[in-house]
Design brief:
Length: 108
Amino acid sequence: MPLSGTGVPSRAGIQAAIDEVAAKIPNTKSGSVNVTHGTAGTTVLVNVTFPTPFATTPSITANPAVVDPLVYSWSITGQSTTGFTLRVHRTNTGTNAFMWIATTAGND
């Protein structure tokens, strides 16, 4: 896995690993999204649309690509066959990349 200058896996390396796993699991999609906070102490909502819809609502998880102690809460809401909303609260300003994976494998 490619490393960043700090010896930590790079965002591209993490996304490549997620994509590799997702490709091996039926009915699975993955991606990443940048979340930017222009005002400290706010919650930002980011709507994510799947590349193609699922037949049924998938299970979804999302995590920051790099752990940032200033991002202290995030959640997923509004799950549907076409996408979801990522809610991220941050105590200061900045941008964080979040990786997500969605699957209906095992939902049968």
